[in-house]
Design brief:
The structure is a single chain. The protein has 236 residues and is of the alpha/beta class. It is built from six helices and seven strands. Helix 2 links the parallel strand 2 and strand 3. The termini are far apart.
Length: 236
């Protein structure tokens, strides 16, 4: 499949999984817009990636539909089409239901679930025109619950189901939809500072490779839900 003049929008692409996905897409020949709530962070990440291809930083907040519409418009105004949406932006608040605050609950749901809804709503018309691809980044926490995970589990269980329903809604329009559900990834998530101690974890480039593999898949075949985990986690 030729990627000449193909474009992608990666939410939360200034670091972590989004950055790794953007790097892979640029290496495949895509023009890539990466979003962050901080314009300086988005532009700094795009500058780091500029040697790989044509990257653009865009300020956008997935929790706001109008902000997502502006991001999509920026892509269309700059490059003329949108072919791939990677809905990656996410956060995590963890703690017992006794301690979880209303603000933490709302921010988690607004970012991890409603944010993906807004990202897709803002881009669906453009993706129908291009018969494009939507990839959401869920989590193994979207099927496996754990103590202290009430807000995060709820958001990711919801995201997994939401994505699968969207897949059924859009496949007759030629739009493919998949969700990737990683386990532990070496990122800054939840205050972690990636280092050699994270060598056993999934690396951001591994998720990028998965996204690339999905985009290369024969159009007749759709891996709609992919679980991925470290092959050799530390023994407990």
């Amino acid at each position: 499949m030729s990627t000449q003049n193909k474009t992608a929008l990666v939410t939360g692409g200034s670091k972590g999984i989004g950055f790794g996905v953007a790097e892979t897409l640029l290496g495949m020949g895509y023009k890539v817009a990466i979003t962050s709530r901080s314009l300086s962070s988005a532009e700094e990440a795009a500058k780091k990636l500029s040697g790989k291809g044509e990257a653009m930083g865009v300020e956008a907040d997935v929790r706001n539909l109008e902000s997502q519409k502006k991001a999509v418009k920026k892509v269309l105004d700059t490059w003329g089409s949108l072919d791939v949406l990677v809905a990656n932006a996410g956060i995590g608040h963890f703690g017992s239901i006794e301690d979880l605050t209303e603000e933490q609950w709302q921010e988690t749901i607004d970012t991890n679930l409603t944010g993906v809804f807004f990202s897709i709503k803002a881009s669906v018309d453009a993706l129908k025109k291009s018969e494009g691809y939507i990839i959401t980044i869920s989590s193994l926490a979207g099927t496996n619950f754990f103590a202290g995970g009430a807000a995060y589990n709820a958001s990711k269980f919801g995201l997994t189901g939401f994505t699968q329903a969207v897949m059924l809604d859009l496949r007759d329009h030629g739009v493919k939809v998949s969700t990737i559900m990683p386990g532990s990834v070496a990122t800054h998530f939840n205050g972690n500072e990636p280092s050699n101690k994270d060598a056993w974890k999934i690396q951001i480039e591994d998720i990028g490779e998965l996204v690339g593999d999905l985009l290369k898949m024969n159009p007749r075949t759709l891996p709609s839900k992919i679980e991925v985990r470290p092959s050799q986690p530390p023994k407990k």
